[in-house]
Amino acid sequence: MARQDLEQTARALVAEGKGILAADETVPTVTKRLSALHIESTADSRRTYREMFFTTPGAGEFISGAILYDETIRQNSSSGIPLTEVLTKQGIIPGIKVDTGAKPLAGASDETVTEGLDGLRDRLKEYYGLGARFAKWRAVIRVTEQLPSSTCINVNAHALGRYAALCQEAGLVPIVEPEVLMDGGHTIERCEEVTGCVLHAVFNALYDQRIVLEQMLLKPSMIISGKSCPNQASVDEVATATLRCLRRHVPAAVPGIVFLSGGQSDVLATKHLNAINRLDLPRPWKVSFSYGRALQDQALQAWQGKAEQFQAGQQSFYHRAKCNGAAALGRYTAALEGAVAR
Ligand code: 13P
User: Fold this and answer.
1) Is the whole-model pTM more than 0.85?
2) What CATH architecture is 3-338?
3) Which in 8, 85, 109, 325 has the greatest CB count within 10 A?
């Protein structure tokens, strides 16, 4: 794979005013989301759910890429077209989640290491053949007063490096996702300290393993207060701390940073992204989104699994994508949010 192609894909994924839809929930996770609304989870209902997003008219105006799960990348649309083709026709680049999940880390309590390296070279080759042009691997870092351990940080960073190297070899742009969880009562300062340490270890591992920085994207969590911290940082504080941390730790050669939403409400995730992009500090990389829940939850609520509400779900998704597209440019406003009744 020519270096130029990978770089081009990485840049296309963070094109002006566009970001990524993370629709790569595993079957158990998507089942949980559907069941909460009493929608039966079958291969068909999951396909319809995904198709609702992928066929939304105009989605390609704000969505550059969609991350799929193994089941979805092999499915056809209701009219018999491979879902990867449906995406490509919308101008959306298909991607694929390739880790096999966070598993308990031996010798540690309450920490995980993300697995999926065994056989990865062959799986990447197959996914490329199925149309994927980028991939995702999520490492999970839990924060308490004692955690994360340096063991947890280092093994996860090493695995991210192994994964990224194999992706670049296979012609796929790796999205490197070290998620620092927002669960817990920690302060925003502690989140910044941990995230800085994690990013330092991750870029060290990427350097060690000869990753071409121009051919990857970073998908971090934002610097925010723990969910149960009594003192919740403001939108401006989150933006300032997040950009400070990223400027300290992410090399300028990386084309883009695409945040995960991590359990933030959809509107807050948009506001945070917007505030980061409005700060008057140099940003050598594009700063955009790769949201799962924050892009899909509103649409799922509108759809409710009912055929007659399929379009309402699409309208809702289009609206959220548009708001986030604006936030990626620092142009999100309350008026834009209010343009559709919530
Ligand atoms: P959330 O935006 O719901 O956190 O999902 C993004 C993602 O891809 C997590 O791995």
Assistant:
1) yes
2) Alpha-Beta Barrel (3.20)
3) 325
